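Postdoc handover notes: sequence design on the structure in folder B. Input tokens:
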């Protein structure tokens, strides 16, 4: 629905789940034709759906992605979730170890919330399933029953029939009572989000969460900042045990090393008081890999590493760390590993930085450090990687570089 002209359109998502899905589409099509309503139909595409979670989670992710694509700017998406759905979601979230954001995921009763380029409203959250069914029967409104609603191998169906159902029979007002508590909790969550948003800009640089700046925050604010950072960096559905590891790390001094795996190849890594959100990185090049510059001074690097431009590098070549390298500049005999550690280069980059060797000596460590005497003779290096993950990782280090270590080593 668009709030300005109140025009209505029906969005129906076909899950490709067999005859039932076809019957549901036919029923919706007939209803829209009878009431002269515009109808748009989306379909589940196996090759385009997220690869994580069970089939219902994948259906949901694909469905809401399609809803988001269909929604006009400032439009309002109305869904038919009701009070029983909300109580079921609460029970499931508790069983999965979810926190307040999981308990209040459906929002507050009668309150629009931002969604895609518009808003999402669930106007039936104060109605119970039985009341909606009674209303439909009294007015002889047709509906199509999903056969999956009787399949207790599905977690939600089991909770609906074996937990929420008995609760409602014993305490008919259970769903509404729980809804009032969830509304109050949602208000508290919104208040905390506002406080968190104001603090967020102070504690995040580039893609790095500064652990040393949030460890003194109250635990609830620290958790909210970490949760917001994860949402911004693809970790909204990080399993609770992994979230707990990051939360524990954020309460310390940030000195310990920690890596937590996320979805789609992402990784969250703690280094030097900063929590990094890493996209997939290219493989570390083989130890025996070497590249020679062509007549233009260009060295083609391994896949994901792009190319390197050398100036004044005649007779030179490029390779990556093999272990035990020393630099003959700066402090005489400085080990490369110690050199990189002092400049706060994180472990995941140390073996991924190209080394430029001329006359048998390391003259540059791309992208930043160049031997001063070689620079004075016209030497220089420009590195252009072509891996998004590598580009972001390098930018993150640049954002957090130690001011005392900037410029060329001497």
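Designed sequence:
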């Amino acid at each position: 629905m668009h709030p300005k002209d109140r025009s209505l359109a029906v969005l129906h998502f076909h899950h490709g789940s067999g005859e039932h899905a076809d019957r549901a589409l036919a029923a919706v099509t007939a209803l829209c034709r009878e009431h002269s309503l515009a109808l748009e139909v989306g379909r589940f595409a196996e090759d385009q759906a997220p690869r994580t979670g069970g089939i219902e989670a994948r259906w949901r992710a694909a469905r809401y992605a399609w809803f988001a694509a269909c929604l006009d700017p400032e439009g309002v998406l109305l869904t038919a979730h009701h009070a029983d759905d909300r109580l079921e979601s609460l029970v499931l979230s508790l069983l999965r170890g979810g926190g307040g954001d999981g308990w209040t995921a459906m929002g507050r009763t009668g309150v629009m919330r931002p969604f895609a380029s518009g808003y999402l409203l669930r106007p039936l959250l104060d109605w119970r399933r039985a009341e909606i069914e009674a209303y439909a029967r009294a007015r002889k409104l047709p509906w199509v029953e999903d056969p999956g609603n009787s399949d207790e191998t599905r977690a939600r169906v089991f909770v609906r029939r074996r937990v929420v159902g008995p609760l409602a029979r014993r305490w008919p007002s259970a769903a509404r009572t729980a809804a009032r508590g969830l509304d109050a909790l949602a208000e508290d969550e919104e208040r905390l989000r506002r406080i968190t948003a104001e603090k967020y800009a102070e504690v995040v640089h580039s893609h790095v969460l500064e652990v040393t700046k949030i460890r003194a925050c109250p635990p609830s604010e620290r958790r909210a900042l970490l949760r917001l950072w994860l949402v911004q960096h693809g970790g909204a559905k990080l399993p609770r045990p992994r979230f707990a590891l990051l939360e524990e790390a954020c309460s310390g001094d940030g000195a310990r090393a920690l890596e937590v795996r996320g979805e789609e190849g992402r990784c969250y890594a703690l280094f030097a008081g900063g929590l990094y959100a890493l996209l997939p990185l290219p493989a570390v090049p083989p130890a025996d890999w070497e590249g020679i510059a062509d007549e233009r001074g260009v060295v083609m690097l391994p896949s994901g590493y792009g190319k390197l431009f050398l100036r004044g590098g005649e007779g030179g070549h490029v390779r990556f760390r093999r272990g035990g390298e020393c630099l003959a500049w700066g402090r005489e005999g400085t080990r490369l590993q110690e050199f990189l550690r002092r400049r706060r280069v994180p472990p995941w980059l140390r073996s991924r930085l190209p080394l430029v060797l001329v006359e048998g000596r390391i003259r540059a460590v791309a992208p930043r450090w160049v031997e001063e005497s070689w620079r004075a003779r016209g030497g220089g290096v420009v590195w252009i990687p072509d891996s998004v993950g590598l580009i972001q990782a390098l930018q993150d280090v640049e954002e957090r570089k130690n001011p005392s270590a900037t410029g060329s080593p001497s």
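Context for whoever picks this up: The longest strand covers residues 9-14. Don't rerun without checking with the PI first.
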